[in-house]
Amino acid sequence: MRFTAQTTGTVELGALVVGEDLRVRDAHDHVCASRPAAPGVRFAGAAVDLSLSQVRSDAHAVLLFVAAGQTLATVTATLFENGSPAAEFVIAPTAGESALICLEVYRRGGGWKLRALGQGYAGGSTQLLTTHGVAPAPAQAWQPAPLAPPSTATETVARPVPASGIPLEVDHGLQRMWMIFEDAARSAAALVSARDYATKRLDQELSEAVSNPATRNTPAADAARAQAQRRHDELVALADADHRRDSDQLGLEIAEADAAMPAALASWLAPAWTTRAARSDGIRLGELYALDRGGLRVPYCVPVPLNRPLWVDTESTAAAARVVGALVARLVAAIPDKPTKVDLIDLTGGLRNLATPLAPLLAGPVIADHGDISARLAELANAAELAEIAYNSGQAVPPTEHRILVAADFPHGYQSSDVVRLGQLMVRGDLIGLSLVIVGSGGEFGDGPVDLLTQSCRHLPTMPGTPLFDPWTGSAWELDLDMLPAEPELQARYLRL
Question: Do 161 and 155 contact (CB within 8 A), yes or no?
Answer without folding.
Answer: yes
